[in-house]
Amino acid sequence: MDMTHTTVSDAVRAASDGKSLELAIILPTLNERDNLPSLVERIDGALGALRWEVLIVDDNSADGTAEAARTLSLTDPRVRVIQRIGRRGLASAAIEGFCATAAPYVAVMDADHQHDPALLPGMLEAVRSGEADVAVASRFAEGASMEEWGRPDREKLSGVANAMARKLTGVSLSDPMSGYFLLSSDRARALVPNLSGIGFKILLDLLATSSETLTVKEFPLSFAARRSGESKLDRAIAFDFLAGLYDKTFGKLIPTRFALFGTVGASGVLVHMAVLWAVLFIYDGAFTVAQTIAVLSAMSFNFWLNNWLTYRDQRLKGTKAVMTGWISFCLTCAVGGFANVAVATLLESEGLHWILAALAGIGVGSVWNYALSSRFVWGRY
C-alpha cells in the first residue's frame, strides 16, 4: 500500500472529522515563503476544531512561496495553493480565492503576520449569526493599536487614505482601507463580476460595488510588524483608491488602466513641452532634433511614473528589471515615437504652431504606446 496516500487520507479524515468545511482564509502572497508555516500554525491554533482551509494565491513569487505552500499541503491538506502566471495584484488574487472555495464563508488577510488570526472566530460568528454582512479588522477602531508596527509614517498615510475614502464614498468605517475582513462566499461571488480588481484595496471595492448598504462590524486590530520579507505598500496607496473610484464611475466607457496611463501621459506632456522649449531655445529652428529629444525625455519620465503608479501591482523592481523594462518600454514605444515625430514635424513644416504640432504628435503615439507597453513591459512577457 502507498504509505504517502494512506498518510494523506488519514489527514483528510482528521481534518474533516465529520464536519462540513466552513471557512476559507485567502492569503494573497508575493515573496512570503518564510511566513507561511508559522502563520498556518497560528490559524490552526485560533480556529481549533472549526473546519477551515487556507487558499494561498501566489503571484509566481521569486522566493519559491508557491512551492513552500505545496510542501505544507503534503502534510496538511487544508492548505491549498493557486500559483498565478502572468497575473498579479492583491485584489485580483482575493477575487480568484472567492471563486475557488466551497466554504460558505471567506476571509482575506495578509500572510506577513501583521493580521492576528485570533480575531477570526469572532469575525466569523458576527457574519454567521447575521449580526453583520461584513466583519472588518480595523487598525483605527477603539481598542486597536499600531504601536508594534513601528511605522508612524505609514500610520499617518493610512489615516489620510481612510479620511479620503469616507469623504468620497460615505462609507461609515474607521478603516475602510483594511486588508483583513470576512464575509459570506455567496455575497463575495455575487459582487465579483462588477469588481474592478485593481490595486490592493479589495474591501472598499466590495463595499462600493454592493447595490445594498452592507452592515459592518469592526474588530479592533493590534497591527503587528511584518515578521519576514518587505512590505508591498507605499505612498501610492491613495492612487489605488482613486483608480477604484474612477473604475466605478467611468470604467465601462474608458478602461481604467488606459485612463491611468493617459493621466501619466498628460504629466509627460509637461516634461515634453519643457524639454522641447529648452532645446529650441538653445538650438533655434532645429525642430526635428528638439522634438526627438523631447519624445525620449517624456518617454523615460512616463516609464518611471507608470511603473510607480499605473502598474504598481506589477511593478518592476531591482536595477536589472527596471533597466530592462525601460529599454523594453522605449522599444515598444518606438513606432509611436516615430509617428509622433513625423506627424509633428509635418504639421509644423506646414505652418502649424509648434505647440499644436507637438500635441498632435503626442496623440498619434499614445494609443500605440499603451497597447504594446501593457503587453510587453508589464504584461505576461
Structure report:
Mean pLDDT is 81; it is low at 1-9. With 381 residues, the protein is an alpha/beta fold. A seven-stranded mixed beta sheet has the order 3-2-1-4-6-5-7, with helices on both faces. It starts with a helix and ends in a 5-residue tail after the last helix. Helix content is 54%, strand content 10%. The chain has two domains: 3-250, Spore Coat Polysaccharide Biosynthesis Protein SpsA, Chain A; 256-376, no CATH class.
Number of strands: 7
Order of helices and strands: HEHEHEHEHEHEHHEHHHHHH
Total discrete domains: 2
Q: Low-confidence stretches at least 5 residues in length (pLDDT < 50)?
A: 1-9
Largest sheet: 7 strands, mixed
Strand content: 5-15%
CATH architecture of the largest domain: Alpha-Beta Complex
Give Rg in angstroms: 24 Å
Mean pLDDT: 81
Give the full name of the CATH homologous superfamily of the largest domain: Spore Coat Polysaccharide Biosynthesis Protein SpsA, Chain A
Give the helix/strand class: alpha/beta
Arrangement of strands in the largest sheet: 3-2-1-4-6-5-7
User: Helical amount among residues, as a percent range?
Assistant: 40-55%
- Number of contiguous helices: 14
